[in-house]
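Journal club prep, notes for RB
We'll compare a predicted complex against what the paper describes. Inputs for the zinc ion case:
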Amino acid sequence: MNAVKQLYELQQVDLEIQKARQALQDISNQLQEPDALISARIQLATQKQHLEEAEKRQQELEWKIEDIQEKIRRVDKSLYENTAKNPRELLNMELELKSMKHILDKDESHLLNLMEQAEGMQDEIATSEEKTTSLEQEWQVKQHTLSTQKSVIESRLSGLEQQSKQMRQQTSPSTLKLYQEIKSAKGQAVVQVEQGKCQGCRVTLPLGEWQQVKAGKIVQCSNCGRILYLE
Ligand SMILES: [Zn+2]
């Protein structure tokens, strides 16, 4: 194999390496947990916290209602047993009873509201839990697929790197240096010649250059400096 063909093939391998590395980078980006799943988890946690707070308020109100009921029972009992010492005390007891019954009505209706709200929250939580679970399952399937792809590409990449290393060892240091320099400057070091034109810059080769390329020598395009390769 002549030196130019060897260099061209090394370039093909290097391009494959570049593609494989890019693919691995893409996969690693995709392996980040999806935003939708993160938001769903946050939403669920917030809803659960709200429910907990509502249940706490409900519990406190229930205790308050029990207290009032107990007080009402006591005053009722006193009235029934007629323990008032005078009409004024009797009147006060009746007023107190009325006021407590009023508070009790208000608290009971508030409690009903809280219970309804809590029920609504529980429904929302159930929906969010379903959504989160389904997103988690989707994510697991995707992760599995990506991991499989990743290991296939990794093993291909390590083969390519090995190949590139061997090809470099078979290339003369000066040729390799030239290849690296053009590659760094232009991205592509070796270009094909088609219909007498350099495919790097599209300029027609002078006859002398063309003949040297045909002879399999390492020739740089006099216009763009890339190494010319004729298949
Ligand atoms: Zn050129």
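Talking point for the session: The beta strands are 190-194, 197-198, 227-229.
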